[in-house]
């Protein structure tokens, strides 16, 4: 469980300071430049308008080794298309929670990371480029014209010249370490390292960056020690190089978004690989950097994560443009697809990226704000819920609520300003803690939270309640060793505060149908504010987090999930909890030894004796979710395991006409496309997250040729039949 991170640990938190660094960088340029312009119409300016968005939108989604470079250099603009203003909306901090564990003090010291004692500024860092001497000079802005792709693909000197002109002297393009798009990157003789190591001296002596960028790094380092990690520092400089000159719609440097995304990841305790990938998350879509370059420079771990985020961005963009997420079934399939197609850590990075974009949504036009807020509520907040990162889920939901229902948001927040009283929770927690000590009742975790604004709003709507009728706005949760201790603790709670009649629920003696067990009571706490107290053993808690009764399933209501979905989400949750220091530390790691937070068995097979298995041998028989594009419409389709392209075509009623070996067009342009490549083999098995275009892109040139050919056939046919008529 991810009770958020304003945690009162006995050990110091990894973040030195949780508030954003005050360095304000608002005056670097105007806000008229927007990233991620529409996909290029590079094929032909007169390409059928019905086909253009599909071609461009998908062009960089897929990356078989042979097309990887082409993909990354196609500027498909897969990012969020959000150039939001960068300020932190403190209003979102309405939701917070507290957690104290007397057993947790060891965990952070055990997990301490290797750190370089070398400050990045100890090396001879030079600041070249236009802004020498001025700490506030704006970074250069590159007018990113997608027609450049043609030059890039052609690897001619024009492109190189353009880059040199645009970037000035910042980069050493002749250095083999700088990937020229379409050129050096494709060198397949690259040696790939699994464990990435590098020498700080070698790599940073040539680094030159603007003063604002140094401030950004310093700010991040002040907030989290992980920003001193060699890999992370290197990723910062590469991100700086890649995004140099790019601005957000707010006028802030693009790099700031990368840093804030990485800081969010650091805040939940993500490791250096994830934080580095967070810094680089937009480089494939929005810069000249290629997969191969990232692979060479950072190793396969970081490269695959960045690529995973890029794919998720592309799919998210597609879904947004097609309003797919508003259809419940499709939204559900998208949640599953997102988790199944990429490493759960890539989803984590995407969530951090989206959270920062939502925090800075104000700089976008109203219509875009609405579109992003809707998609976030339908796709990303549920994903955060599934992954158990409740602090992000709550922030995302609250931000969406503010943009989508501003009046209700305002009304509710003004009412709650006084009631969301953190001091009250702290004081109640301390009181109970003392009472447990006095009663010699040992416990594992005592945590507290207040309910988020959006969760209160939903509960009011769902249960038709007024705010005063909601009794769990403030809550404590106590996790103990055994059932006996649970009942003893319940008596202590009732001795401390008056019980609210009719609110005691003994789900230990009478578990819920899904197996959920816990004692619940509501008492009148400090200042006679209702306080819900949940009391359970650690086994019950694990079941409430990862088992049948897991909180994400409880929150998704009556949805019937397949065994595959359940296992996949569970696996993703384990991975995330296990890998993110802070999430694990909050609750799970402190209630058992380190192994207890490791996934119990390798995915996707759970062993027979695994308490978390839903089917004994699920193997690879789970469903596959595939995106189908037809006539510019996107749908998310579910297929059984081992389905092929032919199955998909049959479902669309296309198999007979298109796939008859004689009838099938020899012209590649007319074939369906799988992940942006013409389909050559109809028996190819479909994979999770595949994108199939049934309406292939037909450049005008070919259309004209075909029209002419059909006309000739028609003319021949009519001549023949008229001849025949005379015979
Ligand atoms: N993980 C998990 N938590 C549950 C489940 N059921 C209830 N809870 C938790 O217990 C809290 C209260 O549940 P109940 O005591 O059954 O209350 P209720 O009747 O549903 O409604 P209220 O009393 O209005 O909250 C919820 O807010 C959840 O935090 C479950 O199946 N799984
Ligand atoms: N009394 C409590 N003490 C500590 N954490 C709690 C308590 N009740 C819920 N939580 C946790 O707080 C997070 C947010 O839950 P949220 O308030 O949205 O829903 P809920 O209270 O569990 O369910 P519902 O809204 O149906 O009552 C979840 O991680 C949940 O497990």
TrEMBL record:
GO terms for biological process: guanosine tetraphosphate metabolic process. InterPro entries: HD/PDEase_dom, HD_domain, NT_sf, RelA_SpoT. It is an enzyme of class 2 (transferase). One of its GO terms (cellular component) is chloroplast. It comes from the Eukaryota. GO terms for molecular function: GTP binding; GTP diphosphokinase activity; RNA binding. SMART domains: HDc, RelA_SpoT. Coiled coil: none annotated. Residues 254-358 form the HD domain. Its EC number is 2.7.6.5. Keywords: GTP-binding, Nucleotide-binding, RNA-binding, Stress response. Belongs to the RelA/SpoT family. This is GTP diphosphokinase.
């Amino acid at each position: 469980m991810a009770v958020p991170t304003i945690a009162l640990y006995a050990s110091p938190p990894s973040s030195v300071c949780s508030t954003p660094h005050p360095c304000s960088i608002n005056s670097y340029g105007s806000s008229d430049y927007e990233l991620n312009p529409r996909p290029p119409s590079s094929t032909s300016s007169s390409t059928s308008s019905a086909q253009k968005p599909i071609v461009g939108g998908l062009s960089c989604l897929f990356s078989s080794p042979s097309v990887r470079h082409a993909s990354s250099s196609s500027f498909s603009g897969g990012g969020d298309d959000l150039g939001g203003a960068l300020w932190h909306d403190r209003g979102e901090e309405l939701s917070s929670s507290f957690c104290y564990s007397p057993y947790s003090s060891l965990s952070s010291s055990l997990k301490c990371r290797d750190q370089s004692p070398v400050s990045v500024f100890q090396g001879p860092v030079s600041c070249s480029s236009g802004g020498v001497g001025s700490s506030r000079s704006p970074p250069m802005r590159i007018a990113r014209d997608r027609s450049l792709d043609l030059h890039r693909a052609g690897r001619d000197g024009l492109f190189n010249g353009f880059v040199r002109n645009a970037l000035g002297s910042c980069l050493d393009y002749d250095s083999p370490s700088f990937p020229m798009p379409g050129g050096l990157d494709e060198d397949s003789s690259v040696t790939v390292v699994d464990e990435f190591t590098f020498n700080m001296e070698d790599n940073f002596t040539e680094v030159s960056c603007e003063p604002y960028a140094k401030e950004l790094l310093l700010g991040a380092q002040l907030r989290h020690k992980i920003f001193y990690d060699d890999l992370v520092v290197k990723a910062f400089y590469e991100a700086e190089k890649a995004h140099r000159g790019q601005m957000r719609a707010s006028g802030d440097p693009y790099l700031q978004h990368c840093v804030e995304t990485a800081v969010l990841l650091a805040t939940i305790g993500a490791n250096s690989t994830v934080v580095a990938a967070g810094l680089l998350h937009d480089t494939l879509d929005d810069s000249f950097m290629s997969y191969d370059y990232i692979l060479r420079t950072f190793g396969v771990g970081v490269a695959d994560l960045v690529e995973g985020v890029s794919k998720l961005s592309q799919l998210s963009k597609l879904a947004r443009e097609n309003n797919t997420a508003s259809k419940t079934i499709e939204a559900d399939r998208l949640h599953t697809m997102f988790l199944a197609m990429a490493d759960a850590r890539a989803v984590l990075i995407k969530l951090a990226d989206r959270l920062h974009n939502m925090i800075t949504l104000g700089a976008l036009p109203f219509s875009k704000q609405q579109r992003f807020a809707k998609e976030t509520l339908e796709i990303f907040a549920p994903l955060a819920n599934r992954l158990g990162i409740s602090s992000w889920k709550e922030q995302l939901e609250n931000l969406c609520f503010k943009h989508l229902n501003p009046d209700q948001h305002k009304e509710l927040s003004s009412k709650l300003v006084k009631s969301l009283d953190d001091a009250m929770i702290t004081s109640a927690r301390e009181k109970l803690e003392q009472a447990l000590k006095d009663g010699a009742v040992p416990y594992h975790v005592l945590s507290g939270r207040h309910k988020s604004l959006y969760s209160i709003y939903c509960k009011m709507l769902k249960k038709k309640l007024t705010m005063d009728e909601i009794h769990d706005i403030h809550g404590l949760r106590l996790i103990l060793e055994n059932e006996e201790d649970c009942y003893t603790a319940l008596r202590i709670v009732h001795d401390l505060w008056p019980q609210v009649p009719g609110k005691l629920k003994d789900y230990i003696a009478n578990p819920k149908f899904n197996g959920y067990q816990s004692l619940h009571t509501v008492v009148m706490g400090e200042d006679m504010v209702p306080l819900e107290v949940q009391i359970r053993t650690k086994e019950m808690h694990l079941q409430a987090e990862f088992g049948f009764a897991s909180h994400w399933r409880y929150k998704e209501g009556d949805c019937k999930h397949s065994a595959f979905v359940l296992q996949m989400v569970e696996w993703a949750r384990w991975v995330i909890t296990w890998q993110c220091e802070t999430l694990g530390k909050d609750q799970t790691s402190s209630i058992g030894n380190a192994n207890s937070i490791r996934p119990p068995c390798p995915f996707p097979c759970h062993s027979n004796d695994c308490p978390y298995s839903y089917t004994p041998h699920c193997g690879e028989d789970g469903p596959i979710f595939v995106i189908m594009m037809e006539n510019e419409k996107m749908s998310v389709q579910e297929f059984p395991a081992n389905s092929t392209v032919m199955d998909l075509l049959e479902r669309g009623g296309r198999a007979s006409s298109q796939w008859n070996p004689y009838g099938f067009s020899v012209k590649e342009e007319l074939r369906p496309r799988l992940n942006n490549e013409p389909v050559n083999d109809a028996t190819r098995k479909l994979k999770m997250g595949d994108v199939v275009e049934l309406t292939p892109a037909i450049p005008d040139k070919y259309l004209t040729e075909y029209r002419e050919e059909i006309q000739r056939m028609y003319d021949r046919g009519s001549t023949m039949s008229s001849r025949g008529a005379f015979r």
